[in-house]
Amino acid sequence: MLRHLPASLLAASLALLAPLSIHAAPAGGKTAPAPMLLAKFNFEDTPAWVPNWGAANNGSYKPATGWKKPFVVKLDPADPHSGENALRFELIENRAPDEKAGERLVHSPQIEIPTFTGTTPPKLVVRFAARTRGVFEGGVGIRVLERNDKQASLGLLGNKESFIELPETPGWKEFQFEGKLRTNTRSIAFMVVMYNHQQAPAAVWIDDISLEYLPGE
Q1: Euclidean distance between CA atoms 74 and 79, whole angstroms
Q2: What is the per-residue pLDDT across 7-26, written as a single tens digit (0 to 9) for each?
């Protein structure tokens, strides 16, 4: 026992034990809720038509790979971030002079969110890798759309048109952002958006997307 140690050794032993007590959980202490992985997209073993992914031109929606112009969405095996494929979103045609300006976007399937049970809002952590070509400043961004249990839109995560704007980056770059979810959100969709002023030719490659839910306490 410690009381039988020489005074010098006793002091040294107590010095070593002291930092350990800082990390001890107090009696009745509350453990932080564990994060939950909601979805991961690395585009491995994914059919060529990329099922359940969609895309839109100025509010007109189709399956992602259903578009032939003004953009195309494809799996690309050339230089993925990891594995064998990345998702390529490539703008190949500009608008006609009389065409109404609008966004072009590609989006994930709807991803379910657990029912809110806490007292503080839950959070969403998004991680992904991207590389780009021909991207204008502020021309391409990442957003997350929130929907309720009726599938009605609640708005964008953080009320931000873009949580992250993607720069011109010919090599892969990893990104991460976090935002508070609305307490009545029941599903989300990850989106890559090309804004009005982005012109062709331009391309965005996305890979290794993960969405993690941090429950409210």
Answers
A1: 14
A2: 444 444 434 444 333 333 44
